[in-house]
Amino acid sequence: MKRLYNLDYLRGLAAFGIMVYHYLSWSVGKYSAESFMGRLGLYGVAIFYVLSGLTLYYVYYNKMNFTKEEIFSFVKKRIFRIFPLLWLVTIIAIIISMKIPDLINLFLNLSGLFGFVSWDKYFSPGVWSIGNELVFYAFFPFFILFSKQYKYLMFLLSVCIFTLFIYFTFFKLNPSVNLSDQWKDYSNPLNQVFLFLSGYLIGYFLHNVKINNSIVILLLAFGIVLFTFYPVTGDAINLVTGNNRLIFTSCSLIICISFYKLNYTFPKFIHNPLTLLGEASYSVYLLHPIIYKLTRIAFDISNKYILPLPNSVRILTSIILTLFVSYFVYQYFEKYFMKFGKTNKNNLNSTHG
């Protein structure tokens, strides 16, 4: 199957942007709703969700049927793709914290069940979104089944998911209360699943649609300009409530559609690093808080006993180390476990037939 390199570009850029946002906000302070970084910090994750639904549609729609063998294959691949690094990051975060974890929360995190029952209880920043993803994976086989065999059920399910999105956007989340005080409601997977569904539907409706590159570039420019300059101020809650959320979600969808339909490959000196960044984006996303904590410890020791160093040096060091470590973790850890998720259909049929 032809790889969608443009989606790798976007995935890598989103991961890099979220990493930079966190490093700056943890070092300098929170960003308000009018800042580009504040918007990127929230909607970079939204773009991840859209890309996840779109990529899974592209990979599985034509070859996945609602059978126990196919469901087993899908679940096995997702387990070996998600859990090894999730476990590693969770264990390292607990060790760094030097606190004895709550055993129930530890079990929920290691089993992945926290995304279903306790999505705001996690041990490292960013892990909440992985819990959301695991919930989305439970929806995905039904997306396949309904859109192939029961289109009226797919329509009803889509309406229900969109209704949940509207409920959280206009009713559940209070625009007069800071986002940090409503994090449990915002990080609820039922508040985010519409983004995953949107990615799936982008693939479903636009898979065979060709759009002229000039139109795609105009769409992309429009989405980025609107995302950057649309007037919103105050706390980040204003980005994810009311009409503002509809605007920024639409911008995220436009950007994803543009990268999906853009028929262009960058020159090798740009293509190769962006592709690698996209492939290693899961490592970048989960490891960057760990790297930051370790560099902060090292720089605190340096500032106290050796040589005082400015925040800018620490941020730059953290970025370089994150990219370096993520590359090796992807190449020698993630890929090692990913190969175990590949199911031999002949063996599968003989085992489950």
Can you give a write-up of this model?
- There is one protein chain.
- The radius of gyration is 21 Å and the shape is globular.
- The chain is an all-alpha fold and 353 residues long.
- The longest helix is centred in the first third of the chain and has 30 residues, at 68-97.
- The two termini are 27 Å apart.
- It has helices spanning 5-28, 36-60, 68-97, 103-111, 114-117, 127-149, 151-172, 183-186, 189-206, 213-229, 242-261, 268-279, 281-306, 311-338, 345-352.
- Helix content is 76%, strand content 0%.
- The protein has one domain (15-348).
List the helices and strands and how they pair.
Layout: H1 5-28, H2 36-60, H3 68-97, H4 103-111, H5 114-117, H6 127-149, H7 151-172, H8 183-186, H9 189-206, H10 213-229, H11 242-261, H12 268-279, H13 281-306, H14 311-338, H15 345-352
By helix and strand content, what is the structural category? Answer: mainly alpha
Strand content: under 5%
What form results from the Cα inertia axes?
globular
How many alpha or pi helices? 15
Helix and strand sequence:
HHHHHHHHHHHHHHH
Distance between the termini: 27 Å
On the 0 to 100 scale, the average pLDDT is 93
Number of domains: 1
Task: Flag low-confidence runs.
Answer: 345-353
What level of helicity do the residues show? over 70%
For the biggest sheet, the summary is: none
- Count the beta strands: 0
Q: What does the radius of gyration come to?
A: 21 Å
Structural key phrases:
mainly alpha, 76% helix, disordered C terminus
